[in-house]
Amino acid sequence: MPELPEVETTLRGIAPQLLTHQISSVDISQPQLRWPVSKSLTQLKNSKILSLHRRAKYLLIETEHGHLIIHLGMSGSLRINDPKIPRKKHDHIEFRLSTGKVLRYHDPRRFGAVLFTTGEPSQHKLLISLGPEPLSEDFNASHLFKASRNRKRAVKNLIMDGHIVVGVGNIYASEALFLAGIRPGIAASRLTSRQCNEIVDAIKKVLAEAISMGGTTLRDFVNSDGEPGYFQQTLNVYGRQHEPCLYCTTRIKQKVIGQRSTFYCPSCQK
User: Fold this and answer.
1) Given 54, 55, 57, 96, the catalytic residue
2) Is 94 in contact with 29 (CB distance < 8 Å)?
3) Using alpha carbons only, how large is the chain's radius of gyration in Å?
4) pLDDT tens digits for range 48-97
5) Domain boundaries along the sequence of the chain
6) 181 exposed, middle or buried (CB, 10 Å; 0-12, 13-18, 19+)?
7) 4-123: CATH topology
8) Distance between CA 87 and CA 204 in Å, rounded?
9) Alpha-carbon distance 270 to 251, whole Å?
10) Which residues neighbour 242 within 8 Å (Cβ) at sequence distance 6 or greater?
11) Do the domains spanning 4-123 and 141-264 agree at the CATH topology level?
12) Can 16 be counted among the known catalytic residues?
């Protein structure tokens, strides 16, 4: 599943080719995604693109006539193409641009979403209750420590809760906790203020590095140019069960926490 770094990579890839240009037309070939694609998208015809932002794993495209809210789901991607290139089987939505290029939404599993709203997107039901961005100043040790009080849930589940902080998916949660030296299964209420600071710093570092490398090559994620990310080459624990830790040679262990596979080093993480 595309996580925050993959979505940020997509945003940075398409933004220069969309900003200030117009959407000439919209063609919907498959309206059944996670939620039905609204025919209101046709209102975007001849609409100028004003800005592009990311909120959690959602891409927000502001136009003169409203906002697109796009989620890539399990297998979605957005690519800028020459219209002469034939559409692929799972290219479900095409936005023709005034530049002569097309923006295509591709989603084999159809678990993503392309929504349209004329209201303030931050107040949309999918976005209104989200926590702070992990790379923002609002996500800090004080915030995490306060959120962890009286929580018996595992610390890994806490940092993957979008109401606490957005965009820390399974891969990056495992990697951040390794970097912080904290076992993923300990109760959140046991965290000290110092540990919260270490976790916050680790999350910011891991996500920033992943963004700089274009995301993680897992399953079928590719960026807006059709190229894979490279962060997987630097993973310390995720997907490395039974392999030696890169720091202490202890074998990496795997366990299920919150119905998700979790990886950790029993020596480096306490």
Assistant:
1) 57
2) yes
3) 20
4) 999 999 999 999 999 999 999 999 998 899 999 999 999 999 999 999 99
5) 4-123, 141-264
6) middle
7) N-terminal domain of MutM-like DNA repair proteins (3.20.190)
8) 37
9) 15
10) 251, 252
11) no
12) no
Q: What letter would DSSP give residue 225?
A: T
Of the candidates 2, 121, 134, 184, the residue annotated as catalytic is 2
CA dihedral 239, 240, 242, 243 (to 10 degrees): 170
Q: Which CATH number is associated with domain 141-264?
A: 1.10.8.50
Q: Establish whether 121 is a catalytic residue.
A: no
Say what angle helices 170-180 and 193-212 make with each other, to 10 degrees: 130
Q: Is 57 a catalytic residue?
A: yes
The residue assigned the tokens 């490279």 is: 230
Neighbouring residues of 100: CB distance < 8 A, sequence distance ≥ 6: 83
Given 109, 153, 205, 260, which residue is catalytic?
260
Amino acid identity, residue 15?
Answer: A
List 3, 6, 8, 94, catalytic entry: 3
CA distances from 93 to 40, 76, 129, 157 (A): 13, 11, 28, 34
Compute the CA torsion angle 259, 33, 3, 27 (nearest 10 deg): 170
Closest among 111, 136, 163, 110 to 53, alpha carbons compared:
136
> In angstroms, what CA-CA distances link 147 with 57, 161, 191, 245?
21, 11, 11, 31
In angstroms, rounded to a whole number, what is the distance separating the alpha carbons of residues 211 and 232?
A: 12
Supply the pTM of this predicted model: 0.89
Residue-wise pLDDT for 5-22, tens only, equals: 889 999 999 999 999 999
Catalytic residue check, 194 = no
CA 143, 144, 145, 148 torsion-angle sign: positive
* Whether the Cβ atoms of residue 130 and residue 55 lie closer than 8 Å to each other: yes
